[in-house]
């Protein structure tokens, strides 16, 4: 066969161990664990064998260098001598089998008489190790081998599988490769017999346990075989292969489902890899047969799990089947839409590809053990193929019927929230226990979940979110997508075009649909949920949960606080007061600037554009203003962001009814805060303060800028009180301070084009300038503020 690997078992092993799946014609990746062996050691080992010394050690040394070793005919003759010796032990026989295998596979022209002698010895061997299966299969592929010797090889191989029952054990690739070699060169009779015996390995009384490793190697082996059959024009063998893994074989119950599903995927992958330009006129029924096999297995799984579509932890068979189906379809390319297949792929992703309980297992393990578990998981074939499996899910989803779509969507959104709770608990435990090294490993694991959710949500958005004609039922999907995105927001470390597009589509739907906006707001965690701690978190002694330091929760709430202003026009005052306001005020004093800033933005949006349906809604807005001012000023300048407070105060004085008591309260509170700030600064020297006006006193300077800004915004009913309080404040300042503030007011008034309030401001400013120039106003400002 063209592109055939020298050692098939090595290539099969790489289907599990390498990061990228390789084809039969690709160059194998060298084993990193292989140690270099010098020619001197190899020569010495052969010398010891000829002298009948240190036999076991010498054989072991040669086997350890097997991938760089060449065995010639004279050396093979020596090995056959040891193999035929009555003193040969089982361990030495295993080594000899391995070395003879190297001789057969790497020697261009094997001595056929010597090979016939080898077959005679092996046919009478009582050994049943996997290495013997491998050697017998390899010998059967040698060109020019006599039919008699080939029959002896194949008969012995069938005997070992059927009557002795070779246990696959820790090295299934040896058995798989040996059988693969035999199948590649056998006639129709032996082909059918060996294939039947092979699939029956897992159905015997000794019952070899089925594993995903077996399924992946089966896929690779069948791919290798079918590509070889296509190359050699052995179309009859392809038909036999497809018939052997058809639905009829499944119904008979003689063969394990995982083996037939994996083998079917291997056939499909071979068809795809060979390319349409070189493909022969294959029997159309063959392709349909193997696709029916995969669909049949998928329907079996769905019937097992029932209407709830959930896998039980102890259902090993169903877990293995969904793993094999998902990996197989990820490797074999496009597959026709099938509801059962879609559900199986979803089950595999949400249960086996991303096992959420593993996060807590890692967090609760000692640091060294946790790192090992994380590495083993990320080195696993399921994790490495997660992206490809997610792609299969999306392709199946796009072509599915509406009912199947909705089922998978609900599973994905529920999974996103479940992941959030597990990941939140995991990081809290790791950081609380100072396991910062494992945090990076866990985050790397979780990033794949983020990508899966985003890619799936993108497929959903393209199918269901049409901002031009949003359907009421479909528009609810927008709220569910945003809910899921909030759960994975902590992991948004890279720019994804799909993420941006999905959020844009969903937000546009929210802006057009009141019920969808309300649904999204109602999905936000409540105040109690945010502050009461993490459910199920068993904190060790000395570890206390602090809600403001929960980075996963903070990221999620930042997402909500940024999205809510975009649909604030559809949120009623009652919903805002019940659901949004408590959370908004909680995060308004958060130590992280972007969170507190986002909370102020929510307040600004509600005051400016919040839905008002009756007088009671206006009253709710005014009630919130009282607490907003109190909450903002009590932690300024330590936590309250200046820009956020300016935006909030500006919005309330502009959008509340003219003369509102809330506006008067706001203005009075601002001047009280200004007095408090300057009281703290009054202990400094006058000249130092005003000469460094833009330095140490920056919070005070900014606060005065806010007060001056408000005289151009407050309504005419509030303006007189505002000017009165401002004048009283200014005349308490020292002469240098009064001059600075008056200059700024002059500039502000001169640039104003407000014909309504400008006359009032000009008159007030002249009066204030006159009062400031009088000697009675020049008292020490430290004395003035100290009395306040």
Write the topology of this structure.
Blueprint lengths: L7 H10 L21 H12 L4 H10 L8 H12 L5 H17 L5 H12 L6 H10 L7 H18 L7 H14 L2 H12 L12 H20 L3 H10 L2 H6 L4 H18 L9 H22 L10 H17 L6 H15 L3 H8 L2 H13 L1 H4 L1 H13 L3 H31 L3 H29 L7 H16 L9 H16 L1 H9 L4 H5 L19 H13 L9 H16 L4 H17 L5 H20 L7 H14 L5 H21 L4 H6 L6 H13 L8 H12 L4 H17 L6 H16 L7 H6 L2
Biggest beta sheet summary: none
Number of strands: 0
Q: Percent helix among the residues?
A: 55-70%
Span between N and C termini? Answer: 97 Å
Proportion of β residues? under 5%
Average pLDDT for all residues: 87
> Which blocks of ≥5 consecutive residues have pLDDT under 50?
26-35
Write down the Rg. Answer: 38 Å
Characterize the overall form.
Answer: elongated
Count of alpha and pi helical runs: 39
The helix-and-strand class reads mainly alpha
């Amino acid at each position: 066969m063209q592109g055939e690997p020298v050692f098939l078992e090595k290539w099969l092993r790489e289907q599990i161990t390498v990061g990228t799946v390789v084809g039969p014609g690709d160059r194998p990746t060298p084993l990193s664990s292989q140690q270099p062996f010098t020619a001197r050691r190899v020569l010495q080992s052969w010398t010891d064998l000829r002298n009948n010394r240190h036999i076991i050690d010498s054989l072991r040394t040669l086997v350890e260098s097997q991938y760089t070793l060449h065995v010639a005919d004279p050396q093979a003759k020596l090995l056959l001598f040891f193999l035929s010796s009555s003193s040969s032990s089982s361990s030495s026989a295993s080594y000899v089998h391995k070395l003879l295998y190297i001789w057969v596979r790497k020697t261009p022209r094997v001595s056929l008489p010597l090979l016939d002698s080898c077959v005679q010895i092996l046919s009478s061997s009582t050994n049943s190790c996997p290495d013997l299966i491998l050697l017998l299969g390899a010998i059967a592929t040698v060109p020019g081998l006599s039919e008699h010797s080939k029959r002896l090889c194949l008969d012995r191989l069938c005997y070992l599988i059927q009557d002795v029952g070779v246990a696959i054990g820790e090295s299934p690739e040896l058995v798989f490769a040996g059988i693969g070699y035999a199948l590649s060169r056998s006639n129709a009779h032996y082909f059918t017999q060996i294939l039947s015996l092979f699939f029956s390995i897992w159905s015997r009384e000794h019952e070899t346990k089925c594993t995903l490793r077996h399924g992946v190697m089966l896929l690779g082996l069948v791919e290798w075989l079918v590509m070889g059959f296509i190359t050699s024009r052995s179309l009859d063998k392809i038909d036999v292969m497809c018939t052997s893994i058809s639905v009829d074989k499944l119904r008979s119950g003689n063969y394990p489902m995982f083996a037939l599903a994996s083998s079917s995927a291997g056939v499909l992958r071979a068809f795809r890899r060979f390319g349409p330009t070189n493909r022969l006129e294959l029997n159309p029924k063959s392709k349909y047969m193997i696709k029916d096999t995969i669909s049949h297995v998928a329907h079996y799984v769905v019937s097992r799990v029932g209407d709830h579509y959930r896998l039980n932890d102890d259902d090993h068979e169903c877990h293995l089947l969904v793993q094999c189906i998902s990996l197989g379809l990820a490797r074999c390319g496009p597959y026709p839409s099938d509801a059962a297949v879609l559900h199986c792929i979803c089950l595999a992703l949400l249960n086996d590809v991303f096992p959420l309980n593993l996060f807590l297992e890692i967090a609760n393990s000692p640091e060294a053990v946790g790192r090992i578990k994380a590495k083993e998981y990320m080195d696993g074939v399921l994790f490495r193929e997660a992206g490809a499996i997610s792609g299969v899910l999306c392709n199946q989803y796009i072509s599915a019927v509406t009912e199947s779509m909705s089922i998978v969507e609900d599973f994905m959104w529920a999974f996103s929230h479940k992941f959030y709770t597990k990941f939140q608990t995991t990081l809290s435990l790791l950081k609380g226990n100072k396991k910062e090294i494992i945090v990076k490993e866990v985050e790397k694991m979780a990033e794949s979940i983020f990508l899966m959710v985003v890619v799936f949500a993108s497929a959903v958005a393209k199918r269901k979110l049409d901002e031009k004609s949003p359907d009421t039922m479909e528009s609810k999907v927008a709220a569910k997508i945003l809910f899921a995105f909030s759960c994975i927001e902590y992991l948004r470390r890279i720019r994804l075009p799909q993420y941006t597009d999905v959020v844009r589509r969903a937000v546009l739907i929210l802006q057009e649909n009141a019920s969808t906006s309300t649904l999204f707001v109602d999905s936000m965690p409540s105040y109690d949920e945010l502050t009461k701690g993490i459910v199920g978190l068993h904190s060790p002694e000395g570890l206390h949960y602090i809600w403001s330091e929960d980075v996963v929760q903070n990221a999620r709430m930042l997402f909500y606080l940024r999205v809510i202003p975009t649909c604030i026009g559809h949120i009623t005052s009652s919903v805002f007061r019940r659901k949004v306001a408590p959370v908004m005020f909680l995060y308004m004093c958060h130590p992280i600037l972007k969170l507190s800033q986002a909370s102020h933005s929510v307040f600004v949006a509600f005051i400016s554009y919040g839905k008002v349906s009756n007088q009671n809604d206006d009253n709710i807005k005014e009630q919130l203003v009282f607490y907003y001012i109190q909450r903002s000023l009590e932690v300024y300048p330590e936590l309250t962001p200046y820009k956020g407070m300016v935006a909030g105060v500006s919005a309330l004085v502009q959008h509340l009814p003219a003369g509102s008591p809330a506006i008067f309260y706001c203005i009075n509170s601002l001047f009280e805060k200004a007095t408090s700030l300057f009281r703290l600064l009054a202990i400094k020297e006058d000249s130092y303060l005003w000469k460094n006006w833009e330095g140490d006193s920056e919070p005070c300077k900014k606060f005065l800028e806010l007060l001056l800004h408000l005289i151009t915004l407050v309504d005419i009913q509030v303006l007189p009180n505002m000017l009165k309080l401002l004048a009283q404040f200014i005349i308490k300042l020292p002469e240098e301070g009064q001059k600075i503030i008056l200059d700024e007011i002059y500039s502000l008034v001169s640039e104003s084009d407000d014909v309504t309030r400008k006359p009032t401001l000009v008159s007030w400013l002249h009066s204030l300038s006159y009062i400031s120039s009088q000697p009675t106003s020049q008292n020490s400002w430290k004395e003035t503020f100290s009395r306040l």
